[in-house]
Amino acid sequence: MKDNQVMFDVAKETTEILKYFNSSFVSKISSGFLKQLKELAKNSDKTVIIDKNKSLKDQKILSQTKDLISILYYKYIATDEEKKELIKIWKNNDVLYQKRISECYDPDNIFKNKKNRNEEIYDKELPMVIQKKNVIERIKDFFKNIFHQKNRNQK
User: What backbone phi and psi angles, to 5 degrees, belong to 106?
Assistant: First the structure.
């Protein structure tokens, strides 16, 4: 359901942003696609506010919306030279993303990162350290507390 909501929000943001684009750009987009986009947008209850003074990358919109608009640009507007440049950028971004993913899930790095995260937690000087006790220790503590309270009440 969440994925559907994101899809509806992307559709609404895209239709709102396309209102600010040059009509020659919008007219090149398939009318069937625009119609489908508008239908999906009806299911979104998101309020979209576009600041004309900001560039598209600085707008407060979903990254998927920016991706969709760049794909629309690629498919309907870009020249052959621009398409080559866009593909080069997308491939470079994909390589960087794959590299970051492989670093995150590399078995050697997983344990290094876990060690570093633990060090960060201890560096923040937590007010108390939480230790897990086994069942027997918890039962012992429970009875100690009961007897300790009983002794206090007797005094």
Answer: -70, 125
Q: Please tell me the distance from the alpha carbon of residue 33 to that of residue 18, in angstroms, as a whole number.
A: 13
Task: Evaluate the CA torsion angle 31, 36, 38, 39 in order and state its sign.
Answer: positive
**Contact indicator for 42, 77 with CB cutoff of 8 Å:** no
Average pLDDT, the chain: 79
Model pTM above 0.70: no
Q: Is 143 helix (H, G, I), strand (E, B) or coil?
A: helix
Task: State the amino acid at position 119 in one-letter form.
Answer: E
DSSP structure class, residue 19? T
Q: What angle (nearest 5°) sits at the alpha carbon of residue 110, between those of residues 107 and 114? A: 150
What are the phi and psi torsion angles at 61 (to 5°)? Answer: -135, 165
Helix (H) or strand (E) holding 56: none
Q: What is the mean pLDDT of residues 48-54?
A: 88
Distance CA 19, CA 21 (A): 6
pLDDT tens sequence across 93-139? 888 888 888 877 777 666 665 555 544 444 455 454 455 566 677 67
What DSSP designation does 58 have?
G
Q: How far apart are CA 12 and CA 38, in angstroms?
A: 7
